[in-house]
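Record 1 of the preview.
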Amino acid sequence: MSRALLEFLGELSLNNYKEWMEAQRARYLELKDGFLDQVGVILTFLSKQDPGFSVLRPKDCVFRQNRDVRFSANKQPYKTNMSAYFAVGGKKSEGPGYYLHVQPGESFLAGGIWMPAPETLKKIRQEIDYAGQELVNILSAKEIKSYFGPLEGDQLKTSPKDYDKNHPFIHYLKYKSFILSKKITDDQVFSGELVPIAQEAFLKMNPFIAFLAKAVEQAEDGSGIL
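->
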């Protein structure tokens, strides 16, 4: 299925218009069902780590193929990837989660929280201020550092409001998104091992997700308890 999916997405990138997609509708639906099955296996795996995932269905995690072109200069109607976001609360959750992106030459796995709302970002910074060494230890652990590399995300050029430029964790306080990612080659997708690769990556980044979730829990209910 994974090879067929990449081939379809490659063809879609060259034929990104409604008439082509309508002619390929049956093929697309079959591939989408296969992708949903893979997402379901990953959900079952994540549910064993956090029961909050157990209430989700695959369609709660998979993004629509249609693009929202209303405010975009790019008027192509379809995304040329298939992707899913695994977060407690579903793909629209504002909390941290795990991301799977399948696209010819550009597949990757990621986890964290991208451009959180101001109140959530404030809580994450408060957690870093309070327990920044915990984050440093997580990101510097060999299992994470060698597998994902450094933390990714846009950063402020200056220190954020209420934090001194000499704060011991100022490097992390400047972040506006908090992401770990791992590229996946087409050969890895072709191998049929996409699901176990995703499971391995998501398990490795679990301490990082837990750190962010603790801060987001504080933002939502003040408990700070996972």
